[in-house]
Design goal:
The protein is of the alpha+beta class. The protein has nine helices and seven strands. The N and C termini lie far apart (47 Å). This is RING-type domain-containing protein.
């Protein structure tokens, strides 16, 4: 009879933990140039001020390092299978955050909450309402309802980094432009990098979808 060899979780910790936060990987995100992996939140925050890999110092890109990272679903699935209750605990933390801040659940989060039967624990079952701004999100259409634009592409705006666009919105929300760092811009429930341009987002996140492209502003998430 073949004997199965048993391993301790500590034997593989170095492969399933993030060197930036020292915790187990959440939203595992890999640098495509060197294949080192981190929590998405950790590496995105790191690359806001740096352009190299935190482990091997490989240079990603001088001005657009966020274009060289990718979500590693396979590794994240392995982490959740190896660490008991990690996925459920993470979902409960996210559920609590969204409820306390009266935010609508992103589509992928709602599906996960249903899968784990956690929606019954929700204090606030948010319903999608495009006209409502009480959930902390403001809708931004790439083309206004009253369309005064020409049909040709607006090059100047399409090549403007989101960081500049984001700095305009606090005037409407906070009446203070200095608070623009407190906002995330989201497309298809995915937080966009500050160096992304509207043109890049349109091509990579809104491909083959009906125009106008829709972006969402929401308070920066801190779990």
């Amino acid at each position: 009879m073949k004997n199965d060899k048993k391993y301790l979780i500590t034997d593989v910790n170095s492969f399933i933990t993030c060197v930036l936060c020292k915790g187990y990987l959440i939203d595992a995100t890999t640098i495509t140039e060197c294949l080192h992996t981190f929590c998405k939140k950790c590496i995105v925050e790191y690359l806001e001020e740096n352009t190299n890999c935190p482990i091997c110092d490989t240079l990603l890109h001088q001005s657009h390092p966020l274009l060289y990272i990718a979500h590693d679903r396979t590794l994240q699935s392995i982490v959740y299978k190896l660490v008991p209750n990690l996925e459920r605990n993470e979902l409960e933390r996210q559920l609590k955050y969204y409820d306390e801040n009266h935010l609508e659940y992103p589509r992928d989060l709602r599906e996960k909450l249903e899968q784990f039967n956690l929606l019954s624990n929700s204090k606030l079952l948010n319903k999608k309402d495009d006209k409502s701004e009480t959930n902390g999100e403001r809708k931004l259409d790439a083309v206004s309802t009253n369309n005064y634009h020409r049909d040709d592409e607006q090059i100047a705006l399409s090549l403007e980094p989101l960081e500049g666009l984001k700095s305009l919105e606090p005037h409407k929300i906070y009446s203070n432009i200095d608070l623009y760092k407190e906002l995330d811009i989201v497309c298809n429930d995915e937080i966009l990098g500050k160096d992304h341009t509207l043109k890049f987002i349109l091509v990579t996140k809104w491909k083959d979808k009906e125009l106008p492209m829709r972006l969402n502003f929401r308070p920066k998430l801190v779990f």
